[in-house]
Amino acid sequence: MRLNESKLQAQCVKAFRLKYPDYHHLFFAVPNGGSRNPIEGARLKAEGVVAGVADMLLLVPNAQYHGLCIEFKWGKGRQQESQKKFQTEVEKIGYKYIIVRSFDDFCREIDIFLKN
What we know:
Layout: H1 3-19, E1 27-29, H2 38-47, E2 56-58, E3 68-72, H3 81-92, E4 96-100, H4 103-115
Parallel strand pairs: 3-4
Antiparallel strand pairs: 1-2, 2-3
């Protein structure tokens, strides 16, 4: 994850935890990205790390979905093929998947999701 995406994600996490403290443990990051040496990469893969999983998960259902998967992208950043595949798979089984490009996007999408 690039630095701008990281800053955006941190800002969104802080705002979420202030507004929805009851869901603190149900909203978390999936640390799939970053540089890894081959040994650490192999260990993480053996532990179950899967390429393409969304940056954050909200394990709170609403009237329509089982939960929410959030992918952060900065500027014109695009999904990798593994991310598109993950999106397709989770949407098939009843999860909502969103791509967030700004703090305002995040706040709007979270509020909509949690009010349904």
